User: What shape does this take?
Amino acid sequence: MSGNEDNPITPRGPSLRALLQAVVRIPSVTPGDRSVSDHPTYGEGRLAQFAASFMRDCGLTPKVHDVHPERPAVWARLDAGRDKTVLLQAHLDTVEPDWADADPFSGEERGGFIHGRGACDCKASLAVFLDALRAAARAPQRLRYNLIVAGVPDEEHALTGSLFLAQRLRGQADFVLCGEPTSLVPVTAHKGVLRWRVIVRGSAAHSSTPELGDNAVYRAAPLIGAIERYGAALAAADTDPDLKHATACLVEIRGGTAVNVVPGECQILVDRRLMPGENVEEAEAAFITALEAALPREHWRLERIVSHCVPLKRCPDNEFLDGLRRALAAAGLPDRPGAMHCGTDASNYASAGFMAIAWGPGELALAHTRGERVEMAEVARAAEIMAAFLGV
Assistant: This one.
């Protein structure tokens, strides 16, 4: 690694610290359903181009393809003539920062931590993977596997970036490691995500004569209790030693348009976390049954908001996971596989037939927070573990 923290990308490249600071300082906020042009910090395009430039400086030819307009995936392959291939994938996008911060993308180091939106989730992983690619490009003869390093958009909103790349690279990799802040624990299973919008119909009227309307918020009241009971029933059934149980949570209610209008519509948003092995259609059918018991179906309708973040079933023992665990143990770190309650890109790869896990530096509790940060010493350990795993 270079000792010059301010080096631009060169054949030697920046230090790992400078690389992490550089990617944190490139805003790449997921626009969700907005246009990228709505705000200069939205979109992953600038960070994808940075990664592509880095890959070119490693002597590789990156591929850059739009998943959404101005929101590309980027990846490069290093063929070392091995029989098997490992894909290291990090997502490029972040959640929104707290815009009250003077500089939410500072990348500043304070107290041994790199601060800024995305530092933890998951630009630390991106920096580690790019650093591994650079080391591998310098000594490809040492690689245990052919290597693909990729950055994808849209993990924080709809996971369409990994969905795209999983289809594009089908059959081209044997093992996928998706960067996430797991505190260097190999995560081999996680919950899936399913979200619904329940739209309750009423009829508007002037609030001075409410009897002429049908208050949709009042109509929705029985459903609120039904959702609470549905979630409590899920919580009472532990089925996994790590993930415990499925969950359902009412997260938002919207009703009413003005102080003098009886609400004609009420919307309820529900977050459902699926256990490995649960079926999306069956889970939705059970939820509908619970709602129908509280309020006849003619008064409401259900919209599915997110349906493609399926649960990640436990990755079976394999040579890649064994190799990562050996590297962790050699570094004096716990090597027992773990699980996450949130969803990751790994589930899209597993659904496409890849062996896939999530792993990376950073503490999940710091992700998406105003004080998001990652410990530089942990990032350095991650780079060492990745080098040992790959053989470089």
The chain has a mean pLDDT of 94. The radius of gyration is 23 Å. DSSP finds nine helices and 17 strands in the chain.
